[in-house]
């Protein structure tokens, strides 16, 4: 901790680098004048030691305890509690997300859509961080960030149209379910190959820096995805290029069936921070107020220093990995049950109740109404026509090339000859 | 001058789905049956038992039995030294497989799907495929890179594509694309024993299919030769050449055509590199017509290679009509089912193409 913060101050101080380079021209036998280009400070010692990695874990920042009370020693930080309206918006978004998840998950089970991934257990990490960034900031997600998109204004209809790949889907039926995106909401369309979003997000942050447009990038990823080489390239580039980017890791304990402790041996994902010279924050991902405050602070840091930051939200993936997975094969019911008690939604609910902003009656009405609305939207989305078959040929290139036009025409011909074989919508 | 005419795939009514299902139930009536999944699983089991140097690595292959359960039970049987769950980094574990193979082990490197092998392709192409050559024959790299390839169902552009032509282009690699359980078992066993790196392209949609299997195939010493195609169906009027899922489509089209008096010969390529061009030529000499069938893209695809090799062989003079490629459409795979169907070759596309090439009026 000490080490990394000292180093970071130095890294952000350009004069420091300049001084180091100048030293080479004036070596005088004085040991303090000696410097290596590859490290920051020279200190020779007469003992030979192997530096074992520290077994300590970095602490986790939290504001609310499991009962929804502000933790007793919290005065030490200037905590920002959102206005009541904002708090309620955050809460309702979490509940809405969880209801939508249940409905879409079930619909896959019934064969109505081909695939789905829930956000269960990670609602606070998503909504809390979404509330802490600006609308103008660019978001790159992995796939378990529907809450972020929801909070930015993607409507439940839009989610459902995407999952059905119907004619109203912004993606025109081209991407598989859950691969949302919205240019208007500054949310990059999700891409299946893991971790490719990280270096791309750094590239975006770099361009923001050059454009001086007062925007930063936030990129979400799982602790499993952090094993890909792309993550390490991204950390290194973000650091060496001084990019304003928040690396938001959802450390939810599992990558499909692989538990986090088999994914890596260090102290979580922020342990990469010191290695790459990047500042870090570790936060309780099930505490929405802590995530919100951490994200606010992270944003301020990356913008004022034009430096990256790794924010690690400790949480638990309560649902199965996806609809192709049955997680009871690799974790106990007890374990899942235990985490059900740490439900981030309940935690905020308790806090709101204590502030007299919420009660069981509101809860009943809100969940009932929301369920009803979502079911209706679902029914509508499922009945909408699918995109016209011609859509298949659009958007391969900026302008449709001749050979695809030819194919389209010959297919049209073919269909008009055998209309009885085709469902035309 | 090339004659290749790309034939687009087209939209299909749901009746074909029903048709497919009824076909796979008739298959179950044959004597001994085995799924492709079990064929692959027993092949690895046999070879791990036979040779201690063989080990498996990849994402979720051990405790979880593989994302598609192809390595089921092997972790339990052989333990964590020989069935290794890796962190999520394809470039990392492919590199580790290459290093292990150079040092004398025989890794089976599973990609959760070949789509993700794109992350690791440098190790496959620049190291695995070329090291034997670059070391002037001193260091061989016996690896099997395996996993599902090609179009799956409802998973769109980044999870549904065929890498047969990609890997097939690279000297130093052997590239196998099995169809049935016999293929899967015999060829995977051969691949594991092979001294060269082998890219073994499976198909998710075939994993659960049952195919008849003989005692010979079940024998622990059963292997199929790499580089030999199989004639799955005899016919005199036209040759249909396909691999993987394409063989299923071709066989079903052949069945349909047979009811209108057209007898198609169906060649299951089994191996994309080396390509068994002789079997194709011999067939064309008899049938004088040929159509290639693949789910991958047309441009520089397997069908294109076959067309070129036929042009360069004496089979060209036996053709009564130019070769037609029936392929996936030249677009990334869309998600929505109606578009996905339109982007993939269907049975009636093949039947259509056959009638067109033979000049048969629709009946
Ligand atoms: C390059 C690549 N390799 C493998 C996969 C298959 N895959 C999809 S999700 C996943 C696990 C990711 O886990 P993590 O990053 O921890 O995120 P979580 O699912 O826990 O939110 C894997 C291995 C993929 N999509 N892309």
From TrEMBL, chain A:
> Looking at the record's lineage, which domain of life comes first?
Eukaryota
**What sequence ranges are listed for the domain Dehydrogenase E1 component?**
91-388
What is the protein's name according to its record?
2-oxoisovalerate dehydrogenase subunit alpha
Task performed by this protein? The branched-chain alpha-keto dehydrogenase complex catalyzes the overall conversion of alpha-keto acids to acyl-CoA and CO(2). It contains multiple copies of three enzymatic components: branched-chain alpha-keto acid decarboxylase (E1), lipoamide acyltransferase (E2) and lipoamide dehydrogenase (E3).
Name the cofactor(s). Answer: thiamine diphosphate
Annotated organism of origin: Sipha flava
Q: Where in the cell is it found?
A: Mitochondrion matrix
| Gene Ontology CC terms | mitochondrial matrix
What reaction gets catalysed by this protein? N(6)-[(R)-lipoyl]-L-lysyl-[protein] + 3-methyl-2-oxobutanoate + H(+) = N(6)-[(R)-S(8)-2-methylpropanoyldihydrolipoyl]-L-lysyl-[protein] + CO2
**GO MF annotation: an example:** branched-chain 2-oxo acid dehydrogenase activity
Q: Which UniProt keywords apply?
A: Metal-binding, Mitochondrion, Oxidoreductase, Potassium, Thiamine pyrophosphate, Transit peptide
Q: Does the keyword Oxidoreductase apply?
A: yes
Cite the EC number. 1.2.4.4
What SUPFAM superfamilies does the entry give?
A: Thiamin diphosphate-binding fold (THDP-binding)
Keyword Cytoplasm recorded: no
Query: Which top class of enzyme applies to this chain?
Result: oxidoreductase
Q: Name one GO biological process term.
A: branched-chain amino acid catabolic process
The protein's matches in PANTHER family, at most eight in alphabetical order, are given as: 2-OXOISOVALERATE DEHYDROGENASE SUBUNIT ALPHA, MITOCHONDRIAL
What family is it from? Belongs to the BCKDHA family.
UniProtKB/TrEMBL annotation, chain B:
Q: Does the keyword 4Fe-4S apply?
A: no
- Residue ranges of domain Transketolase-like pyrimidine-binding in the record: 34-209
Swiss-Prot/TrEMBL cofactor(s): thiamine diphosphate
Coarse class of the primary localization is mitochondrion
User: EC number(s) of the enzyme?
Assistant: 1.2.4.1
The alphabetized UniProt keywords are: Metal-binding, Mitochondrion, Oxidoreductase, Potassium, Pyruvate, Thiamine pyrophosphate, Transit peptide
Q: What class of enzyme is it?
A: oxidoreductase
Q: Where in the cell is it found?
A: Mitochondrion
Role noted for this protein: The pyruvate dehydrogenase complex catalyzes the overall conversion of pyruvate to acetyl-CoA and CO2.
The protein's name is: Pyruvate dehydrogenase E1 component subunit beta
């Amino acid at each position: 901790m000490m080490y990394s913060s000292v180093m970071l101050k130095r890294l952000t101080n350009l004069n420091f680098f300049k001084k180091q380079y100048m030293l080479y021209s004036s070596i005088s036998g004085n040991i303090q004048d000696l410097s290596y280009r590859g490290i920051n400070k020279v200190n020779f010692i007469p003992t030979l030691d192997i530096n074992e990695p520290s077994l300590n874990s970095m602490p986790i920042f939290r504001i609310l305890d499991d009962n929804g009370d502000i933790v007793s020693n919290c005065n030490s930080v200037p905590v920002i509690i959102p206005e009541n309206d904002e708090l309620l918006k955050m809460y309702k978004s979490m509940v809405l997300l969880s209801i939508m998840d249940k409905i879409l998950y079930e619909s896959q089970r019934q064969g109505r859509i081909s695939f789905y991934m829930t956000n269960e257990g990670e609602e606070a990490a998503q909504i809390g961080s979404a509330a802490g960034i600006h609308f103008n900031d660019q978001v790159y997600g992995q796939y378990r960030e529907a809450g972020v998109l929801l909070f930015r204004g993607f409507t439940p209809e839009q989610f459902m149209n995407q999952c059905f790949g119907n004619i109203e889907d912004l993606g025109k039926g081209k991407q598989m379910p859950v691969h949302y995106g919205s240019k208007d909401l500054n949310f990059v369309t999700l891409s299946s190959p893991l971790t490719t979003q990280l270096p791309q997000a750094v590239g975006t942050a770099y361009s923001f820096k050059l454009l001086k447009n007062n925007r930063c990038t936030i990129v979400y990823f799982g602790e499993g995805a952090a094993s890909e080489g792309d993550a390490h390239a991204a950390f290194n580039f973000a650091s060496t290029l001084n990019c304003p980017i928040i690396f938001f890791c959802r450390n939810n304990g599992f990558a499909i069936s692989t538990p986090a402790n088999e994914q890596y041996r260090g102290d979580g994902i922020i342990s990469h921070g010191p290695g790459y010279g990047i500042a870090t924050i570790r936060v309780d991902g099930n505490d929405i107020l802590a995530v919100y405050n951490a994200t606010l602070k992270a944003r301020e840091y990356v913008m004022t220093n034009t430096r990256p930051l790794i924010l690690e939200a400790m949480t638990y993936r309560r649902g199965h990995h996806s609809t192709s997975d049955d997680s009871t094969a690799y974790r106990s019911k007890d374990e899942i049950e235990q985490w059900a008690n740490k439900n981030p939604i309940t935690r905020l609910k308790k806090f709101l109740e204590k502030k007299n902003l919420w009660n069981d009656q509101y809860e009943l009405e809100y969940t009932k109404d929301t369920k009803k609305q979502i079911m209706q939207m679902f029914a509508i989305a499922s009945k909408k026509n699918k995109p016209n078959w011609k859509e298949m040929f659009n958007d391969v290139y900026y302008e449709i090339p001749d050979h695809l036009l030819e194919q389209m025409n010959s297919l049209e011909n073919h269909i008009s000859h055998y209309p009885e074989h085709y469902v035309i919508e | 001058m090339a004659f290749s005419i790309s034939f687009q795939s087209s939209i299909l009514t749901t009746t074909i789905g029903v048709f497919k299902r009824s076909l796979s139930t008739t298959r179950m009536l044959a004597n001994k049956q085995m799924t492709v999944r079990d064929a692959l699983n027993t092949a690895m089991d046999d070879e791990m038992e036979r040779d201690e140097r063989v080990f498996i690595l990849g994402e979720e292959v051990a405790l979880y039995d593989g994302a598609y359960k192809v390595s089921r039970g092997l972790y339990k049987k052989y333990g964590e030294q020989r069935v290794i769950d890796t962190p999520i980094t394809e470039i990392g574990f492919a590199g580790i497989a290459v290093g292990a193979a150079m040092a004398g082990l025989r890794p089976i490197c599973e990609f959760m799907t070949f789509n993700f092998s794109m992350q690791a392709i440098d190790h496959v192409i620049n190291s695995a495929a070329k090291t034997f050559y670059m070391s002037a024959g001193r260091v061989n790299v016996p690896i099997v890179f395996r996993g599902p390839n090609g179009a799956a169902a409802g998973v769109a552009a980044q999870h549904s594509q065929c890498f047969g032509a990609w890997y097939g282009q690279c000297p130093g690699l052997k590239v196998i694309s099995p169809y049935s359980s016999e293929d899967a078992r015999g060829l995977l066993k051969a691949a594991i024993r092979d001294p060269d790196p082998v890219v073994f392209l499976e198909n998710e949609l075939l994993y659960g299919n049952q195919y008849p299997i003989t005692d010979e195939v079940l024998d622990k010493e059963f292997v199929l030769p790499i580089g030999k195609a199989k004639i799955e169906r005899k016919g005199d009027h036209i040759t249909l050449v396909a691999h993987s899922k394409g063989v299923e489509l071709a066989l079903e089209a052949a069945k349909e055509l047979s009811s209108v008096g057209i007898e198609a010969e169906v060649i299951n390529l089994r191996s994309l590199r080396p390509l068994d061009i002789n079997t194709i030529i011999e067939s064309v000499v008899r049938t004088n017509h040929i159509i290639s069938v693949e789910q991958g893209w047309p441009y520089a695809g397997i069908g294109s290679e076959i067309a070129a090799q036929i042009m360069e062989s004496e089979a060209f003079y036996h053709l009564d009509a130019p070769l037609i490629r029936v392929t996936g459409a030249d677009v990334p795979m869309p998600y929505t089912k109606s578009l996905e169907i339109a982007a993939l070759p269907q049975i009636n596309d093949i039947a259509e193409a056959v009638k067109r090439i033979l000049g048969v009026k629709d009946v």
